[in-house]
Amino acid sequence: MIKEITAKTLLSSAKQPDPWFGIKYTMNLYRGCQHQCIYCDSRSECYKIENFADILIKVNAIDLLRKELPRKRTIGTVGTGSMNDPYQPVEATRNLTGQALRVIAENKFPVHVITKSDLVLRDLDTLKQINQTYAAVSFTITTADDTLGKKVEPGAPLVSQRLKAMQTLAANDILTGVTMMPILPFIEDTEDNIRAIVEQAHAHGAKYIIAAFGMTLRDRQRAYYYDKLDRLFPGVRQKYERAFGERYSASANNARKLEQVFRELCERYNIATRMPQFTPQKKSMQPALF
Fold this sequence. Notes:
Elements: E1 2-5, E2 11-13, E3 25-27, E4 30-31, E5 55-58, H1 61-68, E6 74-75, E7 78-80, H2 91-94, H3 96-106, E8 111-115, H4 124-130, E9 135-140, H5 146-152, H6 159-171, E10 175-180, H7 191-203, E11 209-211, E12 214-216, H8 219-232, H9 236-244, E13 249-251, H10 255-269, E14 278-279, E15 281-282, E16 288-289
Parallel strand pairs: 1-5, 3-7, 7-8, 8-9, 9-10, 10-11
Antiparallel strand pairs: 2-3, 4-5, 6-15, 12-13, 14-16
Helix pairs in contact: 1-3, 3-4, 7-10
């Protein structure tokens, strides 16, 4: 179901930028996500999204952004992609993300887009304009294999399409890299998979890879995920129950070894394991990078 809603506010602010992603202002233009990744944490009860398959479109989002963004005294990175994908299929017709990026460009704010979609290339010209301040696009990649990717991220574009989009962004001097998370235990936690992701990221112009070796498992997220495991990976659910019980987090098998392999490869290919971030500045000051 796709439904239009009216939001009261759009941007949420943090006192300090997120240490992983550099985000000071979070922007969610939609609720729910059509990519329907089987592991998505946004299904958890704490986010109060009754049915994550329902797509709620904030029809007044752009008006809110035009009001809220100029009032911010600190120029900081606007992030989108934390609760849903800003380039899920509905964006192709509704264009909320594209419109929002133009508002961000007009106000000379930096942006960090996190996505699983090559649809981001539609807004390349706007991103190049924002990049006069700072623009970053991170592609979530948890496997380098298109077949496995389609199992765990059924509504998202193929991994190979994301990599090609990354290559185009890099060729246009847009800071781009990978969010390599989650790495699903018993499914994606192999040295071969980690090696393949890093090597493909390097080949397609990634400047950084932000990694986490494991996943969250809580309430509705766990129930949905386990149901999908039963259907797609028979027998794997039982491995989770034995290994993790009711724990909130599920670490990848041999996580320390995987991280060692990851860091050695990143060093070999000169890929950062933390992304270059924009330094927040008062509006009277000149923006800068660290």
